[in-house]
Amino acid sequence: MKPHALNDQAHPCLRELEFGREIYDVEIYGNGQGEYLGIVAEDGGPSRIVFRGPLVREGDVRLIRARGVQAWLQKGSEDNGRG
């Protein structure tokens, strides 16, 4: 879903943001036990952000609280960094 398709007041994390063109792909995988692993890739670049974290509850809201680590494609790799 395109960010600009979202109501910018739909959630506090979107307030006061302006959106540009889409350049990031995100993949998130769960293990069925409330833990998640994901990757963020920027179009046309070798850098990635790999994140992992738990599903937590804050009040009545469930969310994934993840911490990211920088990662890069290995030199000569034609893989897109996912999989």
Uncertain segments of ≥5 residues (pLDDT<50)? none
Q: So how many helices? A: 0
Query: In percent, how helical is the residue content?
Result: under 10%
- C-alpha-based Rg, rounded: 15 Å
Structural class estimated from helices and strands: mainly beta
Which word captures the global form? flat
Topology:
Elements: E1 24-30, E2 35-42, E3 47-58, E4 61-64, E5 67-72
Antiparallel strand pairs: 1-2, 2-3, 3-4, 3-5
Features:
single chain, 83 residues, mainly beta, five-stranded antiparallel β-sheet, 5 strands, flat
Write structural notes for this entry.
By secondary structure, the chain is mainly β. The chain has a domain at 21-71. 0% of the residues lie in helices and 45% in strands. It has no helices and five strands. The protein has strands at 24-30, 35-42, 47-58, 61-64, 67-72. Strands 1, 2, 3, 4 and 5 form a five-stranded antiparallel β-sheet that branches. Strand 3 and strand 4 form a beta hairpin. The chain is flat, with a radius of gyration of 15 Å. The chain starts with 23 loop residues before the first strand and ends in an 11-residue tail after the last strand. The model has no long low-confidence stretch (mean pLDDT 83).
Summarize the entry for a quick read:
The protein is mainly beta and 83 residues long. It has a domain at 21-71. Helix content is 0%, strand content 45%.
